[in-house]
């Protein structure tokens, strides 16, 4: 029988054999999450839904038994039926239908007894309880990560003699020998040169501190990459591209498992502490989603339904952003705008609750000791003026240019890593980048400090008591005039800080390109914000000095008089941070809300909106994809972007398989094939499923059956019924076909047949087909002509066609 090649490619079975139900596959060789050499041996993280398949033996035939009764599985569920193989897409329509049936059954039973009513109430409440647990666990882990990373970052520079577990700030809090001007210096805190050579002065002491800084950075980076490589390859990167793909319906078993959670939490602390140009905010979304996935296994409602589980993961992503930025509302909007594929109103409420609980938990832990959820929380009090929209828009243009430049260069570097020998040496790559970063960072105080502390310094609105170099202004004013400080001429410290920040900007721009995508947990939010904040602070100080020395210019004289507080450089830093983050991620609404929640000032929403929209327009003009969509495409994930429109005039017949002159479509008949016939088709093909027709002559469509369900059902029948043999007839009809006497018992498999597969005609425009796949989350769609089956279109076929129409390589779509 001629077999149709190329459609519905499922690698779960090797051609020609049934040697293992979960055999090793070529998909696993193709898999390359950014930054890891993949090892898929740890399948215990996420067991198959609906229970484990009992005794997953090799698939073999069976002997002739003595019983002749018909096997009918309508009465009892078969373990494993309705679940999915790894690296396959879920059927959203079937999952939602199963959940409606489950809910309908519970509702009907609740009227029969008090116990059933209690069960119905607990089922309805279970979603909120799950959100509570996710919020508590996510907030607790975020607090642990914040405290640990702060301590280990300070460990590179010294140690507290009163207790090694204190970071620099906590060590000097209770010291009686510290002054306000030198509040960072106390006898309890010793640098490594003081500990090793008993002095902190001179060139040798500087070299000792330099050496220890680089040594600690290399040690932290080595531990991080080694743990990821050995225990959890999925723990690398930010995780957001993969989470977007998973939320769209793709199965990556183990990506949100317990080992990934444990290793990601540990290595995230190590990676941040190493001083690399990365952040913990993106990986915190991955950590929160791991929490959500693991806790789903405590509730049958979510454990047994992949679509319901993805609603929970959407809420968990919101909780992750909530604890990353201290922005619960921004977290909900981030999940809605950036990562979620299916986001019903119920999920919106639950996401809000999960984000609220997570933020409350983190606030209770108070990891930074300032009663805030993030290190760089800031409040501004000076109003902005209409003219300042011009520099704000300039920052937006800079953010868009930086975003487009970063995406192109980072993707090119990651592509080089995937296609050359570089990708085979992840540990060496991480150590080299860490060594370069540490060596270049130590001499400059703004690169030596953690990136979160740098952003906090740049956002800061200078006051009288600030001792930072950025606040080293000449005080030429009468302090009796009022509380607000007027614009002042820059002092020596400000000019020194400016050129140091310029060098920091260059280093951050270059080194972040090579850091993001390595084999360690690495977020992009904080490095992007740092680049924008530096550019914004530089521009803000320039505007401030321009207004001070030229307040009589026409652009200033109407609103900025001499001795007034006109320009707030910290506000420019905040707007620049938003612009660069928006340019890289293409976030808009959620970005503005996150930044608003960081500052607590409603009056700064317009500058943030102007910068965010400008950066998105500029970046979109240079490249349509954000960084996460670019990495999804780079890795060949089957993600159908809902935001893009399909504008080409092709038809379903142009995309479907088989094409003209191809072998015929492989189908099953409804009541004339034996067990042996079906087993032969399964063993000789790798398709994920098969259309069922009335007969090969009529090609009238009856339904669609999944390969996995077929294998499990036949194997189950052989175990439980001795009479089922290779010559037994398999039928998918309601009633058994007439059979001659003394024939083996028939096998009824109507219960695994999808009787309402989605179909389109061969002349259906592809723009409609693409919309159907996007909005319904289909795995496949059958193509008919005058009611006769012609072919099939899979999600992978749609993605390949879109890539081909965009002049991209269609073979870049690696997974089905």
UniProtKB/TrEMBL annotation:
Region (Disordered): 1-28
Membrane topology: Multi-pass membrane protein
Annotated CBS domain residues: 656-720, 752-812
Superkingdom per UniProt: Eukaryota
Gene Ontology CC: apical part of cell; cytosol; early endosome; endosome membrane; Golgi membrane; plasma membrane; synaptic vesicle
GO molecular function: antiporter activity; ATP binding; identical protein binding; voltage-gated chloride channel activity
Primary localization: membrane
Family stated for the protein in its record: Belongs to the chloride channel (TC 2.A.49) family. ClC-5/CLCN5 subfamily.
Protein name as annotated: Chloride channel protein
Organism: Panthera leo
GN (gene name): CLCN5
């Amino acid at each position: 029988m001629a077999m149709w090649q190329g459609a519905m490619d499922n690698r779960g079975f090797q051609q020609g054999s049934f040697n293992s139900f979960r055999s090793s596959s070529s998909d696993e060789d193709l898999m390359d999450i950014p930054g890891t050499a993949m090892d898929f041996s740890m399948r215990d993280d996420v067991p198959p839904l609906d229970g484990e398949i009992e005794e997953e033996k090799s698939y073999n035939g069976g002997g002739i038994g003595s019983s002749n009764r018909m096997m009918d599985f309508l009465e009892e569920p078969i373990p494993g039926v309705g679940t999915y193989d790894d690296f396959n897409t879920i059927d959203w329509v079937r999952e939602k239908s199963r959940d409606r049936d489950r809910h309908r059954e519970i509702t009907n039973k609740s009227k029969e007894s008090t116990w059933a009513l209690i069960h119905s109430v607990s089922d309805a409440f279970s979603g909120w309880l799950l959100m509570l647990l996710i919020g508590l666990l996510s907030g607790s882990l975020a607090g642990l990560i914040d405290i640990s990373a702060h301590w280990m970052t300070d460990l590179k520079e010294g140690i507290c003699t009163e207790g090694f577990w204190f970071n620099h700030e906590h060590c000097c809090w209770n010291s009686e020998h510290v002054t306000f001007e030198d509040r960072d210096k106390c006898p309890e805190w010793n640098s490594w040169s003081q500990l090793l050579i008993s002095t902190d002065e001179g060139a040798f002491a500087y070299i000792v501190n330099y050496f220890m800084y680089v040594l600690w950075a290399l040690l932290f980076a080595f531990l991080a990459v080694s743990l990821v490589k050995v225990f959890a390859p999925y723990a690398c990167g930010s995780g957001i591209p993969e989470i977007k793909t998973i939320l769209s319906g793709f199965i990556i078993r183990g990506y949100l498992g317990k080992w990934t959670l444990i290793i990601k939490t540990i290595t995230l602390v190590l990676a941040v502490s190493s001083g690399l140009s990365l952040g913990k905010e993106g990986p915190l979304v991955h950590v929160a989603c791991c929490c959500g996935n693991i806790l789903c296994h405590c509730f049958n409602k979510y454990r047994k339904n992949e679509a319901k589980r993805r609603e929970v993961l959407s809420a968990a992503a919101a909780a992750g952003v909530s604890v990353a930025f201290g922005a619960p509302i921004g977290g909900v909007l981030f999940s809605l705008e950036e990562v979620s594929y299916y986001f019903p109103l119920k999920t919106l409420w639950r996401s809000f609750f999960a984000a609220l609980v997570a933020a409350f938990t983190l606030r209770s832990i108070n990891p930074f000791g300032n009663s805030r959820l993030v290190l760089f929380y800031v409040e501004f009090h000076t109003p902005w003026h209409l003219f300042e929209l011009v520099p704000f828009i300039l920052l937006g243009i800079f953010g868009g240019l930086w975003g487009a430049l970063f995406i192109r260069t980072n993707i090119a570097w990651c592509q080089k890593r995937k296609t050359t020998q570089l990708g085979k040496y992840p540990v060496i790559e991480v150590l080299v980048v860490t060594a370069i970063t540490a060596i270049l960072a130590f001499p400059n105080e703004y690169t030596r400090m953690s990136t979160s502390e740098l952003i906090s310094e740049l956002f800061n609105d200078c006051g009288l008591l600030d001792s930072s170099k950025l606040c080293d202004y000449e005080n030429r004013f009468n302090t009796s005039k009022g509380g607000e400080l007027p614009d002042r001429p820059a002092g020596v410290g400000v000019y020194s800080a400016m050129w140091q920040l310029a060098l920091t900007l260059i280093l951050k721009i270059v080194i972040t390109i090579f850091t993001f995508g390595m084999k360690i947990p690495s977020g992009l939010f904080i490095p992007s914000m740092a680049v924008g904040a530096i550019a914004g602070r530089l521009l803000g100080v320039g505007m401030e000095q321009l207004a001070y020395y030229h307040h009589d210019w026409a652009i200033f004289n109407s609103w900025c008089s001499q001795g007034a507080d006109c320009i707030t450089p910290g506000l420019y830093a905040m707007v620049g941070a938003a612009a660069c983050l928006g340019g890289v991620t293409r976030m808009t609404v959620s970005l503005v809300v996150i930044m608003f929640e960081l500052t607590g000032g409603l009056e700064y929403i317009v500058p943030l909106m102007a910068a965010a929209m400008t950066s998105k327009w500029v970046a979109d003009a240079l490249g349509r994809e954000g960084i996460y969509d670019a990495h999804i495409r780079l890795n060949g994930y089957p993600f159908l972007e809902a935001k893009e429109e399909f504008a080409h005039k092709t038809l379903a017949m142009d995309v479907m398989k088989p094409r003209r002159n191809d072998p015929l479509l492989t189908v099953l008949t409804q009541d004339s094939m034996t067990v042996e016939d079906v087993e032969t088709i399964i063993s000789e093909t790798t398709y994920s499923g098969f259309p069922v027709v009335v007969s090969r002559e009529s090609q009238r469509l009856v339904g669609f059956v999944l390969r996995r369900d077929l294998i499990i059902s036949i194997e189950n029948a052989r175990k439980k019924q001795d009479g089922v043999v290779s010559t037994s007839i398999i039928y998918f009809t309601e009633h058994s076909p007439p059979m001659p006497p003394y024939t083996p018992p028939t096998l009824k498999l109507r219960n695994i047949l999808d009787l309402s597969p989605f179909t389109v005609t061969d002349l259906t425009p592809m723009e409609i087909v693409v919309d159907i796949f996007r909005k319904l989350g289909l795995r496949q769609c059958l193509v008919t002509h005058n009611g006769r089956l012609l072919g099939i279109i899979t999600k992978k076929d749609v993605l390949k066609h879109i890539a081909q129409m965009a002049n991209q390589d269609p073979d870049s779509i690696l997974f089905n």
